[in-house]
Structure formats: structure tokens, C-alpha cells
Design brief:
Helix content: under 10%
Largest sheet: 8 strands, antiparallel
Order of helices and strands: EEEEHEEEE
Number of domains: 1
Strand content: over 45%
CATH architecture: Irregular
Structural class: mainly beta
Number of strands: 8
Radius of gyration: 18 Å
Length: 135
């Protein structure tokens, strides 16, 4: 197994059609994904002193953090519109090996920054709403 390039870990946003077409959010320098799950403990007297968890129970979520330089692309404008309106959007995470994950996400945070003599940057945090599934 070979190492995969971080530059091939892409965040894409849907265009709102059904089914959606996805545009790459350009200019991203870093992208991070976390899969989270809450556990349901079902330990009882018969557990022999060991904690037992209920498989498939609890809540699962996916968080995406990304940051990059602002290019003024259509995808960035859609993200900003979703952040301002609180609307859910269709997103896709694509990996170098061809794997893809798709789901609906809410823009939880959108930050812009810029230095006087430098480029404008942004950072976003997305939180899943509903299932995130392989595409």
C-alpha cells in the first residue's frame, strides 16, 4: 500500500440539482475529516465486570475542517450563502484512491482572514446531518 497525497483529498459541494453535480472547492490547502460516534453502554450483572457496548446504537456524525486561500469561486460563494442562511448542502469528500463519501452538511463555522500584504484566507467547519455514505 502506498501513501496517498493530501492534495488529492478534495471537498466538493453540490449544485442543488437532483441528483447533484459536484464542484471542487478550489484553493483548499488543508482538509480534515473526523468520524464520531456516541456509545450506548449495555453493561449488566452478567458482563463479568467488563463494559459492553451495543453495536449500531448511538449517534454517528462526520465533521469536516478545511482551510485555504479565497479564490472567489462559485463553490465558495455557495458555501458562504449556505453559512449565512443556515441551509444544508450536499457535499462530497473525494480521496486519491477513488473512494468518495457523500452527505448533507451544515456550515457550522466560516472564517475569513487576510494580512495587509497577503492573500485572503478562509476556514470552514462542516457538520453532517443524516447519513454520510460511500458514493
Amino acid at each position: 500500500m502506498t501513501a496517498q497525497k493530501g492534495s488529492a483529498f478534495l471537498l466538493k459541494i453540490g449544485n442543488g440539482d437532483a441528483p447533484p453535480a459536484y464542484d471542487t472547492v478550489a484553493g483548499l490547502r488543508t482538509t480534515q475529516m473526523s468520524i464520531n460516534g456516541d456509545t450506548v453502554v449495555v453493561t449488566n450483572k452478567g458482563s463479568g465486570g467488563w463494559r459492553e457496548l451495543l453495536s449500531g446504537a448511538g449517534t454517528r456524525s462526520v465533521s469536516v475542517n478545511a482551510a485555504g486561500i479565497f479564490l472567489g469561486s462559485t463553490a465558495e460563494e455557495t458555501i458562504r450563502a449556505n453559512a449565512l442562511s443556515g441551509a444544508l448542502g450536499d457535499y462530497e469528500l473525494a480521496f486519491e484512491g477513488g473512494e468518495k463519501l457523500r452527505g448533507r452538511f451544515l456550515v457550522q463555522r466560516l472564517d475569513y482572514a487576510g494580512d495587509f500584504n497577503g492573500e485572503r484566507t478562509y476556514a470552514i467547519v462542516l457538520e453532517s446531518s443524516g447519513p454520510v455514505v460511500p458514493a
